[in-house]
Amino acid sequence: MTLETTNTQSTPQTSASYRVFISAALRQPVVVGAMAPSSAALAERMTSVVASSGEPVVVELGPGTGSVSAVIQRRLPAGARHIAIEVDEEMAEHLRRVQPGVEVLHGDAEHLDRLLAGCGVDAADAVVSALPWSLFRPETQARIVGQIGGVLAPGGAFTTIAYLHARALAGGRRFHRLLRDRFDEVIVSEVVWRNLPPARVYACRRPVARD
Ligand SMILES: C[S@@+](CC[C@H](N)C(=O)[O-])C[C@H]1O[C@@H](n2cnc3c(N)ncnc32)[C@H](O)[C@@H]1O
């Protein structure tokens, strides 16, 4: 059945996708970090850095059941690569079934460079992520952001989201400082209210070289 269910206004997710998402969120609330997939409005914002021409390599971190993946797939030209790294095995398997154009890797974003090397990729034109950053330990935040900076191609961009309420959390404030510290350009969007919960999109470019 392809009944469409929504995050009030979302990228259409089938009822099966929705069930897989909710089941993962109940099983591992701190890993999933949200009770609903991203909305279409948020997904459009996050993916605006994805090139629709050429042969871009796009890496998606924490694709879940694919609400953002679907928008990336719609933008991508033939010849592009779309690699998605998902830590939850059930969601990874589900995504393989519903988005056959995506190369889904079951793994942890903490091993980003190794996972990409395993599929012959050493640079990404865009990294798109909805990882639950504010719930990560400081060292995990820093390790993943460092690896993203390390794999971004010259001129590449990294986009991610921060839920509005997360800015009040220590982990959310730390993540904001980390991005400012690690990227030369960090553009923060206005609040995307059409998402549960409302969120801002961060677009980061030009990772700062570190010793
Ligand atoms: C807030 S959900 C977002 C899901 C989807 N991108 C969306 O926007 O609807 C966060 C996703 O990140 C995944 N995740 C959490 N930690 C991860 C990690 N270390 N590596 C890869 N995926 C991770 C979760 O399993 C979940 O699918």
UniProtKB/TrEMBL annotation:
Alphabetized UniProt keyword annotations: Methyltransferase, S-adenosyl-L-methionine, Transferase
Pfam families: Methyltransf_25
Record domain Ribosomal RNA adenine methylase transferase N-terminal: where: 42-165
Protein name: Methyltransferase
SUPFAM superfamilies reported for this sequence: S-adenosyl-L-methionine-dependent methyltransferases (SSF53335)
GO molecular function terms attached to this record: rRNA (adenine-N6,N6-)-dimethyltransferase activity
InterPro entries, A to Z: Methyltransf_25, rRNA_Ade_methylase_Trfase_N, SAM-dependent_MTases_sf
Residues passing through the membrane, by range: none
